[in-house]
Write a structure and sequence with these properties.
single chain, alpha/beta, eight-stranded parallel sheet
Length: 274
């Protein structure tokens, strides 16, 4: 059992329509070189996950993600400073994030937002950084990719106070049906990770059932949050296919319909070529 827990899940059958992994961390999955990235995305493509957005949470990861997006036409990037790392977020950090975010293959400002679960950064520092990232996304005309952990009310309040960008993506959406309805009413996009496949995630199940097509995505957040029945094992972008199939089951829709919705929403949100 110990060896099995360290093994990647099997690559599932190819989806009938290709999709985008809307949020992953290729570097944290172990990719370092262009060859590593290509091999990882090759595995994803075998499962019908044809493109990925690799996401940064600090400056080093942001530099790597922006560079990695130029190595492979199937890879795009998002850059920001994760809320748990905003204790020190001054002019130098802001200047570097903005420089990277202007990259042609950087399709979102993220992940940014609020995290009240961990105690790594004061709430006021997180909120100030979140407001700055909101402004950056609006100035650049790019999607805002939100990390929201135990902070729903403050995230929604700050988006209202600052004026949300045209495209807002709640990465690894963690709210219930009530929070989902409030996000849906605002036109925000809910991105579902492997957590939606967990048997005890009843609030997420209800959220996934009510969100309209055009307002949901699928993601891995790899190497974390591996879908059921492989929870606890390493995760990679190809596992998006497991989540897409589970979303179809939850919604009572055909897999190809859900996959098509995931793909077209990702193309619109991240301004990807069709």
């Amino acid at each position: 059992m110990g060896d099995e827990k360290r093994e990647l899940p099997p690559i599932p059958d190819r989806l009938p329509v290709t999709v985008v992994d809307a949020h992953t961390h290729l570097d944290a999955c172990g990719a370092e070189t262009a060859a590593d990235v290509a091999a990882m995305v090759d595995r994803a493509e075998r499962a019908g996950v044809a493109r990925v957005v690799t996401v940064a949470d600090d400056l080093a990861a942001a530099r790597w993600a922006a560079e990695a997006s130029t190595w492979d036409s199937r890879v795009f990037a998002a850059v920001a400073i994760h809320p748990t790392r905003t204790k020190e977020f001054g002019d130098a950090e802001q200047s570097e994030v903005e420089r990277l975010a202007r990259g042609e293959r950087v399709v979102a400002v993220g992940e940014t937002g609020l995290d009240y679960y961990w105690d790594y950064s004061p709430h006021d520092a997180q909120q100030a950084a979140f407001r700055w990232h909101i402004d950056l996304a609006k100035r650049l005309g790019k999607a805002l990719m939100i990390h929201d952990r135990d902070a729903h009310e403050d995230v929604l309040r700050i988006l209202e106070e600052e004026g949300a960008p045209e495209t807002v993506v709640f990465h690894c959406f963690s709210g219930d049906e009530h929070i989902a309805r409030r996000c849906i009413d605002k036109g925000y996009i809910l991105s579902f990770a492997g957590t939606v496949t967990f048997k005890n995630a009843r609030g997420l199940h209800e959220a996934a059932r009510i969100v309209p097509r055009g307002q949901f995505l699928a993601e891995t957040d790899a190497p974390f949050l591996t879908p059921h029945p492989y929870r606890g094992r390493p995760n990679e972008p190809y596992c998006t296919a497991y989540t897409v199939r589970y979303l179809a089951q939850l919604r009572g829709e055909a897999v190809h319909e859900v996959a098509e919705a995931v793909r077209t929403t990702a193309e619109r949100a991240y301004q990807l070529p069709a």
